[in-house]
Amino acid sequence: MGCIEELTYEVLAKGLTFQECREFISKLCPRVYHIEPGTKLFGEGIIGPPPIAVGTDGVFLIFPYVKPCHGTFVLKVEDPGEAARLASFAKPAPKK
Q: d(Cα 8, Cα 18) in Å, to the nearest integer?
């Protein structure tokens, strides 16, 4: 999958800072992972200041997405395979 536009997604929030994205995702998701910029989700490198929070419940992935000239969005995509792949390599976020 190369382009986010090829996925079926839901926009959960927009216009947030990356810190606000981390907080939003941490409150919403039972499992949160921190990834580095450039880590691939759906075949594309995710951009933003580290650590980038990606949440999952095992079926959905919740993550920040930067669309140049439009800002930062928090997207929700259903993909159990990609959620399992993330869990296989990503570092769990510290518990608060």
A: 23
**Cβ–Cβ under 8 Å, residues 61 and 76:** yes
Residues in CB range of 39: below 8 A, 6 or more apart: 45, 46, 52, 90
Q: Quote the tokens at residue 58.
A: 């095992």
Q: How far apart are CA 73 and CA 37, in angstroms?
A: 16
> Which are the contacts of 64, defined by CB distance < 8 A and separation ≥ 6?
16, 18, 21, 25, 46, 48, 52, 53, 72, 73, 74, 75
Q: Six-digit token pair at 3? A: 């382009």
pLDDT in tens, 3-28: 777 889 999 999 999 999 999 999 99
Q: What is the pTM assigned to this prediction? A: 0.91
Q: How far are the Cα atoms of 15, 39, 77 from residue 10, in angstroms, in the given order?
A: 15, 21, 7
